[in-house]
Design brief:
heterodimer; A: GROEL, domain 1; seven-stranded mixed sheet; 17 helices; B: GROEL, domain 1; GroEL; three-stranded antiparallel sheet; 16 helices; cytoplasm (chain B); ATP binding (chain B); ATP-binding (chain B); ATP hydrolysis activity (chain B)
């Protein structure tokens, strides 16, 4: 065992038996972890809020992504540090659970750790800090519940939902046409929502993008868009009252799984085989025809001969449709996925009002749009945009907005945005701090300070003086006893977020506080980091 | 700047080879990258723009000479992510409207150049974006108000189209023969009616002769040969278009194989095979066609059979050719031949072999779908023909857009000045910092006529400000007359552009500039293993030709 110093003067131990490992212990480990987490949080900090900036990420293959969605940034950053990975997970779990606020949660976690560092310097034991944070987070959540509002909306009166989605979208590049985008998202969610059970199946909403055109050309299709074309150039390009056979069997002679050989040794057998082959094709097509289908959607490809036979029988077909799309199609059209030609019956066909092949621009790209489906539950938002990065970013933004709308349907409690909720919680925690006996009191104060990181980042990103605007809002909140005051990012002239119609879902905010606290507790509890040395 | 450069010496957060650039650095590197791309294509803008030689790094070192922005950008290797954004918009412009691929990149570059100044003045990028958005909207409205729609008067509409085609071609390689090609392009597009689809215009390149020998053929020309011993000229042809193997029919049943134990049986099977083919040919003949065109090979044996039956058989037409032929002649593409009654045959008045230069081609005239036509380009070399094709393609695309949209506006920097003026006026009515961004936008727009002048070797500063003076009068149609080297009335010069193209240029460029402006952090993940050694570099200079 020997002790060495690295270039920054930090000691590290080289364990002889484990020469391949590097190890950091005790307070040093905690400091190092905190530093790493803060670095990640700092990267995301500038993406927070309606005036947040984007990050440009380039993968090893040279693909460029431009985004300000926290989860996407972290995922594509290829974080190597272990603690960094925890934060990536944190953002991802917020994304999966809530779908929005992925940046906020990381910023909050980073700021909690920053405050904890100060306490560690005071000599407070990390576990006491963790416990204090835990208690403080409960108070913050309680406060959130107190200030939350019930959000009224109806199936016909979806204006409030649109406004919420607009808040989410305003921080994205689609801000230019947030109104129409938000409406689209809400309509999509309402179309698939199960209002009785208060649930939304996100699988039924598909986001499909195609480069070209303008953002304004983006539209909501009550049906499905397949990025495929009709298999034969001369088949009908538009089918009314389509009866769709959804097949997972190829238009090919069967291929038994067992290994076999068909030996041909005479001319007669050769003839037979030939007839047999032709029969296969004609039978398949006949079976489709008999079932009454007038559109075939197949997961596999088909032979030229089959293709022509289908066309001859006036059966347009779409081939190579992916499994996910096929399932979606089955749900939307109320059809069944048929694995064998024999099992094809009229009852198993899906139906749709119109099926149309549309082409774009001067290129030959084509897509098939299936609309007015029997079960209009599946919807597609079809995105157009100036370039690939734009389309991808719009996809992500709309996903966030859709998630927000879904959360509102799940639980219609909201809190107000613009940092107002964080400021109120901070005030509540600070007030509670004085009543806490013991060391946790410090942790409470630290927690309260950490919560302020969100409004500070918002103000900073909006080009306002962060400390000045925060203190102003804070004092007004106390004086006017109005918990809805926040940072006026869009310079609309009022700090009252209720009037600005900036709100977020309560569960989203609660999740942010709880998740961030949890991760911070976890990081604080680590006092030894053993990692394999970098590969030589 | 590497990730481990975080103050305090944090352990490496990112992958060792990943590079992260933040704040000013990030912005600077993306600006520099984007402007480098814009400057690269800048010199090709306008009627006196220069061409670029692109040499491929691959085997053969193929050489392309072009001044088409999209083609240039497509071929160069770009490493800077911001530059990639610009390459991408240029590609989209190409796919969406076909022309204006250079303008869109140049305008985006100019916007960023202006934005850089504003950022140096400590204006928040979001404020700049807000100003740009409003300015773009205002500019669009301004040119929309100036757009002309002459579609009700067919003679004047044709003249518009001619002007648009001439303007597009004048900035290209075909500029000497622009009259000829403008006529050609307009004729081709006008034949297609109201909803033209460029697929029915077939461009055929044949080296030899000179550019003026290029012509528009009202029929369809297939670059293939007729089988030996078959009729070379057929009137009132009935055409069967097929996609079927005419060598030997493969057995499609899985696991089948031929195994014989004596030579006699081999010949039996061979005969069976031959019979099968004969059968197929008989079936095809039973359709009553006298021309048979197949996408795949036709072997000698069936070819001979066709020759015996007096049927013209053409093999190996590629897929595009087949599809086009089918749509042109109105036939359907067959792969099975059991139901002759169901199959629709294509028809045309006359099929004959013609000679262009030294090559024999098959000419279909009097086809069912009257719209289709073929443009045969002649020229001294293949490079020249390639460039001619690109230019003609651009012109056709623009015409197609114009026919769809029906609106045209003046060219020669006139719309830019109109927009710039409208935006300047808007800026005067806007309080606050956004107005600075608007002014910057208008300045960026004025850069376009400046570059056109510079490329033509004219005194840009003088001309552009003369132009601005002219545009102080509302409704002025003045623009830069590059050929004369002075400010002139675009209406008299006949310089027109498609409104749709201009609109798209404006919107795409603004969008791209906005995307790049919004970035404050660039994370460059490690390159894959093969480029390990060169993982770290200054991305602003990584622009390789």
């Amino acid at each position: 065992m020997s002790l060495a110093f690295d270039e920054y003067g930090r000691p590290f131990i080289i364990v002889k038996e484990q020469g391949q490992k590097s190890r950091v212990k005790g307070l040093e480990a905690q400091k190092q972890n905190i530093l790493a987490a803060r670095a990640i949080a700092r990267t995301l900090r500038s993406s927070l809020g309606p005036k947040g900036m984007d990050k440009m990420l380039q993968t090893g293959d040279g693909d460029v992504t431009i985004t300000n969605d926290g989860a996407t940034i972290l995922e594509q950053m290829e974080v190597e540090n272990q603690i960094g990975k925890l934060l990536v997970e944190l953002s991802r779990s917020q994304d999966h659970e809530i779908g929005d606020g992925t940046t906020g949660v990381v910023v909050l976690a980073g700021s909690l750790l920053e405050q904890a560092e100060g306490l560690l310097d005071k000599g407070i034991h990390p576990l006491r800090i963790a416990e204090g944070y835990e208690m403080a987070s409960k108070i913050a959540v309680k406060r959130l519940e107190e200030i939350s509002d019930v959000f009224e909306y109806g199936v016909d009166d979806y204006e409030p939902l649109v406004k919420t989605c607009m808040t989410t979208l305003s921080s994205k590049i689609v801000g230019r046409c947030k109104r129409s985008m938000a409406e689209m998202c809400v309509k999509a969610v309402l179309a698939v929502a199960d209002l009785e059970r208060k649930d939304v199946n996100m699988d039924l909403i598909k986001l499909e993008g195609k480069v070209g055109g303008k953002l304004e050309d983006t539209r909501l299709v009550h049906g499905i868009v397949l990025d495929k074309d009709i298999s034969h150039p001369q088949m009908d390009k538009e089918i009314k009252d389509a009866k769709i056979a959804i097949l997972t069997c190829p238009f090919e002679p069967p291929k038994p799984k067992t290994k076999h050989k068909v030996d041909i040794d005479t001319a007669e057998k050769y003839e037979q085989l030939r007839e047999c082959e032709q029969k296969y094709f004609s039978e398949m097509v006949d079976q489709c025809k008999e079932s009454g289908a007038n559109l075939i959607v197949c997961q596999w490809g088909f032979d030229d001969e089959a293709n022509h036979l289908l066309m001859n029988h006036k059966l347009p077909a779409i081939r190579w449709v992916g499994g996910v799309e096929l399932e979606l199609l089955a749900i939307a059209t109320g059809g069944r996925i048929v694995p064998r030609f024999k099992e094809l019956t009229a009852a198993k066909l899906g139906s749709a009002g119109t099926v149309k092949e549309v082409s774009f621009g001067t290129t030959k790209d084509k897509m098939v749009v299936i609309e007015d489906c029997a079960n209009s539950k599946a919807v597609t938002i079809f995105i157009r945009g100036g370039n690939k990065m734009m389309v991808d970013e719009v996809k992500r933004s709309l996903h966030d907005a859709i998630c927000v709308a879904r959360n509102l349907i799940r639980s219609n409690r909201i809190v107000y945005g613009g940092g107002s909720a964080e400021i109120t919680c901070s005030l509540a925690v600070e007030k509670a701090a004085n009543e806490v006996p013991g060391i946790e009191q410090y942790a409470f104060r630290a927690f309260a300070d950490a919560l302020e990181a969100v409004p500070i980042a918002l103000a900073e990103n909006s080009g306002l003086d962060p400390i000045e605007s925060l203190t102003a809002v804070k004092s007004r909140q106390v004086q006017e006893e109005n918990p809805y005051l926040g940072i006026d990012c869009n310079e609309e002239g009022t700090n009252d977020m209720k009037k600005q119609n900036v709100f977020e879902t309560m569960i989203g905010k609660r999740q942010q506080v709880l998740l961030a606290t949890q991760v911070v507790k976890m990081i604080l509890k680590i006092d030894d980091v053993i990692s394999p040395a970098a590969y030589q | 700047m590497s990730a481990s450069g975080v103050p305090g010496g944090a352990p490496g957060i990112l992958n060792e080879q990943a590079i992260e650039e933040k704040g000013e650095h990030a912005r600077m590197s993306s600006f520099v990258g984007a402007m480098a791309i814009a400057d690269l294509v800048k010199t090709t803008l306008g009627p006196k723009g220069m061409d670029k030689i692109l040499q491929s790094m691959g085997r053969g070192e193929a050489v392309t000479v072009t001044n088409d922005g999209a083609t240039i950008l497509k071929s160069i290797y770009v490493d800077n992510p911001a530059a990639k954004v610009l390459v991408d918009i240029s590609k989209v412009q190409d796919a969406e409207v076909g022309d204006g691929t250079t303008s869109v990149v140049v305008l985006a570059g100019e916007l960023l150049r202006q934005a850089e100044n504003l950022i140096n003045m400590k204006i928040h990028p979001m404020t700049i974006i807000a100003g740009f958005r409003e300015a773009a909207e205002c500019g669009r409205n301004a040119i929309e108000a100036r757009a002309m729609n002459n579609s009700s008067d067919s003679a004047r509409f044709r003249e518009d189209l001619m002007n648009v085609a001439r303007t597009t071609l004048s900035s290209k390689f075909l500029t000497q023969d622009k009259e000829h090609f403008a006529n050609l392009a307009v004729d081709a597009v006008m034949r297609l009616g109201d909803a033209p689809s460029l697929e029915s215009i077939h461009i055929l390149k044949k080296p030899g002769g000179d550019l003026t020998k290029s012509f528009l053929d009202e029929g369809f020309i297939l670059d293939k040969k007729i089988g030996v011993g078959q009729p070379k000229r057929i009137e009132d042809a009935k055409i069967l278009v097929a996609n079927t193997p005419m060598d030997t029919d493969k057995i499609k049943i899985y696991g089948a194989r031929v195994r014989v134990d004596s030579m006699a049986k081999v010949s039996d099977i061979e005969k069976a095979e031959k019979d099968k083919m004969k059968d197929k040919v008989d079936k095809i003949i039973a359709h009553g066609c006298n021309v048979f065109i197949n996408r795949q090979l036709i072997y000698n044996y069936p070819e001979e059979l066709f020759a015996d039956a007096g049927i013209m058989a053409i093999e190996h037409a590629d897929f595009d050719g087949i599809e086009r032929l089918a749509s042109v002649t109105g036939g359907e593409i067959c792969s099975t031949f059991d139901h002759p009654e169901d199959v629709k045959l294509g028809s045309c008045k006359l099929i004959e072999e013609i000679m262009i230069g030294e090559e024999k081609l098959i000419h279909f005239s009097g086809v069912e779908l009257g719209a289709a036509c073929t443009v045969v380009l002649r020229g001294a070399s293949l490079h020249l023909l390639d460039e001619a094709e690109r230019s003609l393609h651009d012109a056709l695309c623009v015409l197609q857009q114009t026919v769809k949209d029906r609106r045209v506006i003046h060219g020669g920097g006139c719309p830019e000045m109109v927009m710039s003026k409208a935006i300047d006026e808007l800026a005067q009515r806007t309080p606050g910092k956004r107005a600075i961004a608007m002014e910057a936008f208008s300045k960026a727009l004025r850069a376009i006529p400046t570059i056109i002048c510079d490329n033509a070797g004219l005194d840009s500063a003088d001309l552009v400000y003369q132009l601005r003076f002219c545009h102080a009068v509302p409704g002025s149609a003045m623009g830069i007359d590059v050929l004369e080297g002075k400010v002139g009335d675009m209406q008299d010069c006949g310089i027109f552009e498609s409104f749709r193209v201009k609109e798209q240029v404006l919107l795409s460029a603004t969008e791209a500039a906005e995307m790049i402006l919004r970035v404050d952090d660039v994370i460059n993940n490690s390159a894959r293993v093969q480029t390990m050694g060169t993982g770290i570099h200054d991305s602003s200079t990584c622009l390789g030709l």
